[in-house]
Specification:
Blueprint: H1 2-25, E1 40-41, E2 45-52, E3 61-67, E4 71-78, E5 90-96, E6 102-106, E7 118-125, E8 128-136, E9 147-157, E10 173-174, E11 181-185, E12 198-204, E13 210-216, E14 224-229, E15 242-244, E16 248-252, E17 258-266, E18 273-281
Parallel strand pairs: 1-3, 10-12
Antiparallel strand pairs: 2-9, 3-8, 4-7, 4-9, 5-6, 5-8, 11-18, 12-17, 13-16, 13-18, 14-15, 14-17
């Protein structure tokens, strides 16, 4: 009898652990104020087919993934097509699993799509576990039909890739002299709290001349500006910063030694694209 009681207690304890785990997932809230639930765990990579319920008003999909080392995540989401011929698109958000904070967001502008068949993004991140939220941008509820999207995700280690979130001066990534960094510029997600920017900092020596090289890999002609900022004020001594437009190069001689900041901004282009940034001593 004692053995039976022990077994029953063990089963009950296990059931409680499972129950706590499921309930715990409801405590996490996305910036869209949607509970993070029914999470699909793809680990360091994998695929999943999501069915979008036409009767649901919480049509969000949450994917858990992890990076074992600093690097980036690549994901691709198929755009489902309704019977009336209209394609459905999505906004994306990434949250750190630890701390449950928004790391990256992208809100769609359909005019900037390269293709209507799918959406894909590449985002640099520190090692750790994350949630990807896929949120319908166009209305699926009320179509009278369930639609499906094939979702694929992969991760890769890369120590010279940008690490989100670096949207503010305070969270700037540190650059190493002579090392080229690659980054992905997204844009401000609809529910995001901060304006989307990429920030970097590098330590420079007074009187030395440095070359800043910025290359924008997108097909867009006038989108991005990289601005060099002094460490102790909002703008440098010229008042507005030294600007590097798309595929720009600039020689810069600091008046003081210390950290200098590079701010990368987007002007009205809701489209992720990749860029490279490098600082060398002249």
């Amino acid at each position: 009898m004692n053995n039976i009681k022990k077994i029953m207690c063990t089963i009950f304890a296990m059931a409680m652990l499972v129950s706590v785990s499921i309930l715990g997932s409801e405590d996490v809230y996305a910036v869209s104020n949607t509970p993070v639930n029914n999470v699909v765990n793809l680990g360091t990579g994998g695929s999943y087919t999501k069915t979008w319920d036409s009767e649901s008003f919480t049509n969000h999909c949450f994917i858990e993934f992890k990076l074992n080392k600093d690097g980036y995540v690549n994901f691709k989401v198929e755009s489902p097509v309704a019977s009336d011929g209209t394609s459905k698109f999505f906004d994306f958000y990434i949250y750190s699993k630890k701390g449950k904070k928004e790391v990256w967001g992208h809100t769609l502008n359909t005019l900037k799509l390269d293709t209507i068949e799918y959406q894909s993004c590449k985002v640099g991140l520190k090692k750790g576990s994350y949630y990807l939220e896929i949120m319908p941008k166009t209305w699926i509820t009320g179509t009278g039909e369930n639609l499906t999207s094939a979702i694929t995700l992969s991760t890769k280690a890369d120590k010279n890739y940008e690490k989100e979130s670096n949207n503010t001066r305070k969270t700037a990534n540190t650059l190493k002299l002579g090392k080229k960094i690659t980054g992905t510029y997204g844009d401000e997600g609809y529910f995001s709290k901060n304006k989307y920017q990429d920030w970097y900092k590098i330590k420079l020596t007074k009187g030395k001349t440095y070359k800043f090289t910025f290359k924008n890999k997108s097909k867009l002609k006038t989108t991005t500006m990289a601005r060099i900022l002094a460490s102790n004020q909002i703008y440098d001594t010229k008042g507005y910063g030294n600007k590097l437009l798309k595929n720009g190069k600039l020689l810069y001689t600091p008046a003081k030694s210390g950290y200098y900041y590079i701010q990368i901004e987007n002007y009205g282009q809701s489209k992720p694209y990749e860029y490279t940034l490098k600082v060398t001593k002249k």
